[in-house]
Amino acid sequence: MDQLPNDDEIECLLNIDDGINDDEKKIKNKLWQEGSNDRRDGVGVSSDMDVPIDSDMIIEEEQSILEAQTSSAVEELKLAVAFQGKGAVQRQVNALSELRRLLSRSEFPPVEIALRSGAIPLLAQSLSFGSQDEQLLEAAWCLTNIAAGKPEETRALLPALPLLIAHIGEKSSLPVAEQCAWALGNVAGEGEELRHILISQGALLPLAKMMLPNKGSTVRTAAWALSNLIKGPDPKAATELIKIDGVVDAILRHMRKSDDELATEIAWVVVYLSALSTIATSVLVKTDLLQLLIERLASSNSLQLLIPVLRSLGNLIAGDAYTTNAVLVVGHEITDNIIRALSKCLKSEHRVLKKEAAWVLSNIAAGSVAHKQLIYTSEASPLLLQLLSTSPFDIKKEVAYVVGNLCVAPAEGSGRSSLISDHLVSFVRSGCLRGFIDLVRSADIEAARLGLQFMELVLRGMPNGEGQQLVEKEDGIDAMERFQFHENEDLRNMANQLVDKYFGEDYGLDH
To answer: What is the dihedral of CA 292, 293, 294, 298, to 10 degrees?
Structure first.
């Protein structure tokens, strides 16, 4: 793909592994959903503490009052922890409840003042074994909200992590275990270093066990925390997770029977498993997971669910050669079902679904001639051409990979690839060339290379010199000449060779 193909050889425009190296596609974005991130507060903003937004003075006054209340709440918790008399437990629960209320109720939670006042050691002490569930729950809830703060605030939980992990064990009540899992998920969402610490302290196994039963919100929270914990970039946790007894069965059961919310969290676990671990991928493709993902893709209208389902499909299809073969060569029926479901996404109003669906299709299109033919003859084909002409740049680029891959056959034993002429001619005569020339004119190096490669296909593959006329008509010569002195040597050589070969001194003499 780095060298301009000659007359006898054309490399596949998109290698089967391309695409999953892009973090945006391969793994879950930092944004959990629009407007919030991977970490979640333990409770929403309460209406009785809404902060006025029309006066900076009022906001500062409200914040000052809130900070003073928080400092007093931590001081009361300190006294309650030290108190040993009658009603000591209830006093401590009340103090924890007040601190949790303050940490939960503001648009700008007073986490910093709570930390400066010494909240973490007190909260860790409140998690001591043998404490009542109400006390444990309130303490874990406070820590959950602190962990949803700034990076340095999340790191402040380090002394409490072993206790949080201990309380997600099987001996804990479900509410306590779930709240502790929530706190750990927030910590894991902060970064690789904290994920490594959690894994080294043994968080993976108890979280995995929490995901196994059918217990509604507890399973959903555990799956969410697990997806944050295994997100890498180190693949070790993903590989360890897939080996835990019952995990694969639980993934399949929840994907088959659960509501959209739980299926969304399970699908994110699958995204990371399939993106980071070849061992996990090889295990998953031997199950009926692919069919379950296709069914979800076809039946659901939940954007939050469809995105991880698409990424899971793409990751499974874009695995190594053996895995890809296992996914796609199970028969045309399942591939045809995938294409139909992806076509639904191409017609969606959501641009992210169009982009993700095009990425998955590009990996299918990089497969066998039979799979290329399935896409070419499906309803996806006209949809792709329309998107190539009318879409924003990011979608157009993904669609261009699909169209380009549909026009070249995979390399055979000689290592050489050849054109699929009927695909190429049909697409070009349907007007796709302009979209590729737009890519050549873009500042995106990868997109420009893709555009130049497709122009080479057109110049070489269209019959009766038609390619040269079409390229000239669409101002393709001008687009290529902009690379005459380009700093990228690869693109400069590609463009100059095309101009010299197809539009040299003899061009136009016989017209």
So the answer is: 100
Contacts for 56-64: CB closer than 8 Å, 24+ residues apart: 62/106, 63/106, 63/108, 63/110
Q: Quote the number of domains for the chain.
A: 1
**Rg of the chain (C-alpha set):** 28
Instruction: Quote the pLDDT of residue 504.
Output: 79
Query: Per this entry, what is the length of the chain?
Result: 511
Q: Is the peptide bond before 233 cis (omega within 30 degrees of 0)?
A: yes
Q: Does 414 reside within a domain? A: no
Q: Rounded to 10 degrees, what is the CA torsion of 102, 104, 107, 109?
A: 60
Nearest to 184 by CA among 171, 172, 168: 168
The torsion angles phi and psi of 44, rounded to 5 degrees, stand at -75, 175
pLDDT, tens digit (0-9, with 9 covering 90-100), for 240-276 = 999 999 999 999 999 999 999 999 999 999 999 999 9
The answer to whether residue 35 sits within a structural domain is yes
Residue 41 lies inside a defined structural domain of this protein: yes
CATH number, domain of 211, equals 1.25.10.10
Contacts of 23 (CB under 8 A, 6+ apart): none
User: Against a cut of 0.70, is the pTM above it?
Assistant: yes
- Estimate the crossing angle of helix 369-376 against helix 421-429, to 10 degrees: 30
Question: Range of 202's domain?
Answer: 29-230
Give Cα 431 distance to the centre of its chain. 33
